[in-house]
Specification:
207 residues; mainly beta; 2 helices; globular; Rot1; signal; Protein ROT1
Length: 207
């Protein structure tokens, strides 16, 4: 009986030590980013399986068309010198009509500033972003082509996490209301992006 108790205690101690080592291996180097941490922010960060990414594989600026990924998700790309790009693919089912599924594709890019207090402000280039809404049923929401929505996050934190069994850099964005983005994992560094300069010319007075 005493030996059984000793074996049980040894097993429990081993499990605790193993769990602590996995936590240490999976989550370390936690940091909240502030001005000057732009090198840590640099890269392309994608949620979930990493199928959604920025760049020409998601949005074609020549035809202003999207290449829909195989699964939903979102991605941000940042450069050290203040440029960013965003891609999002969202699928929303209709509880009343399960056969009617709405999808949303968003792309935009612009400039960002990471402030000393940790706030991250993203300003899109006006009239360059695009959004496409589609539905599997007729009579859904009409597609909207233009999209330029600024974003602001009061906290940007990063850490090393186990993602699909691989140690990866992770990023999370939190807004002023406490809403957190899904964990975003760095999949490219340097980032995969379209040109950061304005992609279109605007002619005033020409329809």
């Amino acid at each position: 009986m005493a030996r059984s108790i000793q074996l049980l205690q040894a097993c429990l101690a081993y499990i605790v030590l193993l769990s602590l080592s996995m936590v240490r291996a999976g989550r370390q180097r936690y940091a909240v980013l502030h001005a000057g941490d732009e090198p840590m922010l640099q890269g392309t960060w994608s949620s979930g399986s990493g199928k959604v990414t920025t760049g020409s594989g998601f949005f074609n600026p020549r035809s202003r068309s999207f290449i829909a990924p195989t699964v939903p998700g979102q991605a941000y790309s940042f450069t050290q010198d203040g440029f960013w790009e965003f891609a999002k693919y969202r699928v929303t089912p209709n509880p009343r009509k399960p056969e009617c599924i709405q999808s949303q594709l968003i792309w935009q890019h612009g400039n960002y500033v990471l402030h000393a207090n940790g706030t991250l402000q993203l300003w899109p280039i006006t009239r360059e972003g695009a959004q496409l809404l589609t539905s599997s049923c007729p009579g859904g929401s009409p597609p909207e082509e233009m999209y330029d929505v600024p974003e602001e996050y009061t906290m940007v934190d990063t850490w090393i996490d186990l993602h699909h069994g691989v140690s990866s850099a992770a990023l999370r964005l939190t807004d002023a209301w406490g809403n957190r983005s899904p964990s975003l994992y760095k999949i490219y560094d340097p980032p995969m992006m379209l040109p950061t300069d304005p992609l279109y010319l605007e002619y005033i007075g020409i329809p």
